[in-house]
Write a structure and sequence with these properties.
mainly alpha; 53% helix; 0% strand
Length: 216
């Protein structure tokens, strides 16, 4: 019985040592794979991106740049000018990786190694998938802004009118737009011209050679 107790104790000690060694190796393995904190003095600071990031191999992704795609719109006879678009998420697998994930996601020296221009370039590259959404928002907004800018430059708007003037012909102001909105708009333009003092003046034809002409 004493022998069995001794063997069980030895087995428990050996098992505990193996477990401790396994845990120690599991904890040290990722730390040994990561770059040293503060960068390795033998290799210098760690730069997380390469000179052509986020671009990669043209053999895999096709040519990059403006008007340098796999096809061209300048030719109808031979529009294919480059290799097919074969990204890893289409053909499967990254067979020749160009980015080291351990180095790429290590950002301890990013402020010393990445320039402001590279920061701006990476920021705009992340915005590329949203080009359609940005144009869907900006184009209507710019159209409204331009129309508002043109209208405000033409003449000041009439925000309110005198009560006595309104009640001289209230039906025209209340219901005129429903009968003939063109005539209603012209009526308001005519009213503003007299109110702001430029009635009868062709302000678009000011100049010496138009002083004697009467085009009104």
């Amino acid at each position: 019985s004493s022998l069995s107790i001794l063997s069980s104790a030895c087995f428990g000690v050996q098992r505990a040592r193996r477990m401790a060694g396994m845990l120690r190796r599991a904890a040290l393995r990722p730390l040994q794979a990561l770059p040293r904190r503060g960068s390795d003095l033998a290799h210098g600071p760690i730069k997380p991106i390469g000179p052509n990031f986020p671009l990669t191999s043209e053999k895999t992704m096709g040519p990059h740049g403006w008007m340098r795609g796999s096809y061209t719109i300048l030719s109808l006879n031979n529009p294919i000018v480059g290799p097919m678009y074969r990204p890893p998420w289409v053909v499967g697998g990254i067979h020749n990786p160009t980015i080291d994930p351990v180095k790429h996601f290590n950002t301890q020296n990013r402020f010393e190694t990445v320039t402001f221009a590279e920061y701006v370039k990476c920021f705009f590259y992340t915005c590329l998938p949203a080009r359609a959404q940005l144009f869907m928002i900006m184009v209507p907004v710019m159209c409204v802004v331009i129309v508002s800018w043109i209208e405000q430059r033409r003449e000041p708007m009439e925000i309110f009118m005198d009560r006595e003037t309104y009640w001289k012909d209230p039906n025209s102001y209340m219901y005129g737009v429903y009968f003939d909105h063109h005539h209603f708009s012209h009526m308001l333009c005519h009213r503003r011209a007299h109110k702001w003092g430029y009635a009868g003046k062709d302000i678009t034809l000011e100049g010496d050679h138009h002083d004697g002409d009467n085009h009104h």
